Amino acid sequence: MTEQHKKSSLAALTLAAVGIVYGDIGTSPLYTLKTVFDPEHGLALSEGNLLGIISLIFWGLTIIVSLKYVSLVLRADNRGEGGIMALMALALNSVTRAAPKWHYPLMLLGVFGATMFYGDSVITPAISVLGAIEGLEVAAPGLEQYIVPLTIIVLITLYAMQRHGTAGIGRFFGPIMVVWFAALAVMGVVNIVEAPQILYALNPFHALRFMYENRMIAFVALGAVVLALTGAEALYADMGHFGKKPIRAAWFMIVFPALALNYLGQGALLLMHPGAVDNPFFHQLGDWSVYPLVVLSTLAAVIASQATISGTFSMTKQAIALGLLPRMRILHTSASEIGQIYIPAVNWLQLGVVLLAVVGFGSSDKLAGAYGIAVTATMLATTVLTFFVIRYRWHLPLALCFGATGFFIAIDISLFSASTLKLFHGGWFPLLLGIVLFTVMLTWKRGRELVFENLQKHAIPLEEFLSSLFVAPPTRVYGTAIFMRGESDGVPHALLHNLSHNKVLHERVVFLTVHIIEEPYVAEGEQAKVTDLGHQCYQLNVYYGFKDEPDIPRALQLCECLGLPFEMMETSFFIARQTVISAPGSGMSTWREHLFVAMSRNARGAADYYQIPPNRVIELGTQVEI
After folding, report:
1. 3-state SS of the chain: helix, strand, coil percent to 5?
2. Rg of the chain, C-alpha, whole Å
3. Contacts with 549 (C-beta within 8 Å, 6 or more apart), sequence order
4. Which is the most buried residue in 138, 148, 235, 271, by most CB within 10 A?
């Protein structure tokens, strides 16, 4: 690739990253300062306090986003992929041999961080769209009663569009967000020129003095300041889509300067016009600008919400692959982009919870209390997991590892602690969501382990069974039979049922085992491995990463190079459909067993999930007690 092509490609990816990665953090100026100086927090609007708050926001963006995420965490990639699920898999891989005692605690921490991301993904659409439409209050206070209904209409429309994908409108996301960030910067500069003394806030001394002089009130305010940092996790989560360079370029060249200027500008506005504190964002340019800003900010909020929704779909797909959620129906919405997916069950469940949040809280101010806990909990989990990656994968000295992450962990704990003060003012909402999802994920994982243990107890070793079978072989019929077989399983139940009822065996028998490894992708040439078991029987192992698209017909095509060609119309897939039954004994608690049974019965079938043609599948039932 020529140097010119590289530059144009980097520019295109940077533009796309501005649209998708930075929508969440880019809409934070809509509600951050309004929330900080909410009368409920008890923080007086004075020049000293204002300089302290703006300084905290500026240095928060510098330390948390620029230093922690852009400089450190983006380096901890799992073969180019980011996000807390990818980081958890990387950390688990790193400690498996070096420090196995940390394996289970890190798995729990990763799952907890992921569930907090789900909480964030519910609040982001609600608070962003509400915050944008609340600008109508500034232009015409009589329109206040229409804010929640309009928000609901916008959100229902957004979620209804998901099944069509974003391929058609996605190309406009980048340019719209560039206009948005340009507007933020221009508004900031206009107000800074009017009150340049706000630039004193760039001195971190003002942030430290504010924290020292106000103590408890400053600690409460810190829980609102964190709203300026929401969306930082998206930098890391979207690394696989864009790469590090475009994300870094977008941050330092466009997003960070625009955000810094706008927060400084809002601070300058409040120095001159303290009465604008009810909604400083929409007062920045005067009354004439309110309606255009409502339109532009609503577009930006919708794009921010879209990025979060897409992130939820991607996270869910990874959780399914890692065995933390049951198989679900996943639809691809783009012929060219494999990452663009739509999960109907997740989409409509998320919409229901988002609408509950909008109706239940009713304003961005009240939702802000719920926002901080989800964001800071995920940040803290990310930092802890990063420590284990740089210590056990990069093998850096312990002192350096503590130094690199300890500073950020101290800040994350401070931000999380400040956010917990809002526990009874909305903070319970994402925590409740997280606890429910945490329970669901661990129940599914433990339930699958119990099923596996039960099958292991009654498993018949495959090689011994085949040896005895061919002492007096059954009648063999034309064609190929593929029996799905779990990892480390014995003889598949489907094979035993077929022999028992039909008394025949196909002329070629293949035992197919799918392995999901703790890596995002497996190279196509390494996805299929064949072992000859004799008597025209074969063990076929198929390997996928947790971001790969499972496609068994495609894996069978790869086997031709391994000396095992398949003709699909002469091949039958025998799959045992397990019916899980809760039985008294030493499993999980009864309610968890019933929850697992319910999820198991509603899980997507293996044939559908692995894209096996339905007309080639024969399902045979089997019961498993847990």
Report:
1. 70, 10, 20
2. 27
3. 338
4. 235
Structure tokens at 406: 């300890």
Sequence-ordered list of residues with C-beta below 8 angstroms from that of 221, at least 6 positions apart, any chain: 36, 41, 43, 53, 56, 214
pLDDT tens-digit map of 58-113: 999 999 999 999 988 888 877 777 888 888 988 998 888 788 889 899 999 999 99
Mean pLDDT of 241-266: 92
Listed in sequence order, the residues at least 6 apart from 213 whose beta carbon sits closer than 8 Å to its beta carbon are: 48
| pLDDT number for residue 59 | 96
Max Cα-Cα span within the chain: 95
Pair 217, 43: CB distance under 8 Å: yes
**pLDDT range class, residue 168, cuts 50, 70, 90:** low
Q: Both tokens of residue 293?
A: 């800003």
Please choose, from the candidates 134, 128, 131, the residue with its C-alpha nearest in 3D space to the C-alpha of residue 147. 134
Both tokens assigned to 609? 């999930």
Give pLDDT, residue 1: 47
- Please choose, from the candidates 25, 95, 115, the residue with its C-alpha nearest in 3D space to the C-alpha of residue 65: 25
Q: Give dist(CA 546, CA 72) in Å, integer.
A: 24
What type of residue is 111?
A: V
The two tokens of residue 197 are 């003394």
Q: In what order do the strands lie in the sheet with 617-625?
A: 528-534, 537-545, 504-517, 475-484, 571-581, 617-625
Structure tokens at 322: 């890692």
Highest mean pLDDT among 144-148, 441-445, 591-595: 441-445
